[in-house]
Amino acid sequence: MTTALHDSAFLTAARGEQPDHTPVWFMRQAGRSLPEYLAVREGVTMLDSCMDPEMIVEITLQPVRRYGVDAAIFFSDIVLPLKAIGVDLDIVPGVGPVVANPVRTLEDVAAIPDLTPEQIPFITAAVQGLVAELAGINGGTPLIGFAGAPFTVASYLVEGGPSKEHAKTKAMMFSAPEVWDALMRKIGGIATAFLETQVAAGASAVQLFDSWAGALTPADYVRHVQPHSAAVLARIGELGVPRIHFGVGTANLLAEMGEAGADVVGVDWRTPLERAIPLVGDRAVQGNLDPTLVFAPTDVMTARAAEVIEAGRAAKGHIFNLGHGVIPSTDPDQLARLTAFVQGYPLD
Ligand code: CP3
């Protein structure tokens, strides 16, 4: 890694050191809120675009060019590794991932292959291309790799698609622990291989998305989920890159998500950072402006962003983000103003 990259505000804050400005990026910064994204995606399915290195590079760079954010996030999806190993699934526009044959039994789990780097050459090529391009943007912009955490990916595999209650998933967890354990191990191995491939190709940080972990009680999280996420994060920790661990509605789980092995705990917008920071212990935090504040007048949005930055000062490190992904109807000009505001906010 170059010195410029190492010293970037994003990686400095992720290590828990003091950067010269609060680093900012946005979950789902690449996507439907950008006209240039809609133009590139025209006539190409989501999954096809995730397997085309040139498209991945272009789409990942779009928000970096437009906003000058402090980090790029690799354009892909949490179900892409499953697609790469042959699981019959699609990403349906406006719906999300849909799995043709939901996983129910030990035999179903055993039929899911492991992931090897040879199955995802387009990921390696795209990461390498991006790292080369990003080195020349704003003095060196880090690339965040990502994977879906075992629980969140399991929820799509077991439900067969998006769900609100995750009832079938949790029913498996409660009633068939041996199937659950095998499934979590399988997905954990796939997530690890997906992240290892991205880091080996040059990604300088990773985010493990356990978006739906907030559906669990702390006891169930600790017993049935945390060990599997911890195994993924431990392996990536050996590679020496910072690990961000994020979920939605996780006010009750922030300590446990930190203990799973994160360097940075992502906080959704519902939990004020002043409440989150004491819970995550000796770790940095990421977040957490309400994503709907972009629809407020700019001065209202930036006043609330200032509150987030001020609260973040009590943390070991703070990376500014929205509390969840960019909403597709977001005005990109508001995100440009928000980026400039955060980066220009005086820290002393
Ligand atoms: O953040 C980024 O800019 C990087 C790209 C990214 C995508 N998905 C692209 C995408 C990332 C990090 C993800 C992760 C992801 N995918 C998560 C975890 C993050 C979160 O939001 O909590 C989850 C739960 C998924 C599953 C998934 N894929 C959903 C719920 C959807 C949205 C369905 C819809 O159409 O509203 C997708 C599809 C998807 N993934 C899109 C994008 C840009 C939209 C598809 C399109 O543009 O056609």
Automatic annotation (TrEMBL):
Domain of life: Bacteria
Subunit and partners: Homodimer.
Location of the Uroporphyrinogen decarboxylase (URO-D) domain: 23-32, 144-160
InterPro entries named in the record: UROD/MetE-like_sf, Uroporphyrinogen_deCO2ase_HemE, Uroporphyrinogen_deCOase
Gene: hemE
GO molecular function: uroporphyrinogen decarboxylase activity
A Gene Ontology BP annotation from the UniProt entry: protoporphyrinogen IX biosynthetic process
Family matches, as CDD domains: URO-D (cd00717)
UniProt site positions, description: Transition state stabilizer: 77
Pathway field: Porphyrin-containing compound metabolism; protoporphyrin-IX biosynthesis; coproporphyrinogen-III from 5-aminolevulinate: step 4/4
HAMAP family documented for this protein: URO_D
Cell compartments where the protein resides: Cytoplasm
PANTHER family in alphabetical order: METHYLTETRAHYDROFOLATE:HOMOCYSTEINE METHYLTRANSFERASE RELATED, UROPORPHYRINOGEN DECARBOXYLASE
E.C. number(s) listed in UniProt: 4.1.1.37
Family of the protein in this entry: Belongs to the uroporphyrinogen decarboxylase family.
Biological role stated in the UniProt entry: Catalyzes the decarboxylation of four acetate groups of uroporphyrinogen-III to yield coproporphyrinogen-III.
Catalytic activity entry: uroporphyrinogen III + 4 H(+) = coproporphyrinogen III + 4 CO2
Keywords for the protein's UniProt record, in alphabetical order: Cytoplasm, Decarboxylase, Lyase, Porphyrin biosynthesis
GO cellular component terms attached to this protein's record: cytosol
Signal peptide range in chain numbering: none
Main subcellular location of this protein, as a coarse class: cytoplasm
Entry protein name: Uroporphyrinogen decarboxylase
Pfam families per UniProt: URO-D (PF01208)
Binding site for substrate: 28-32, 77, 156, 211, 324
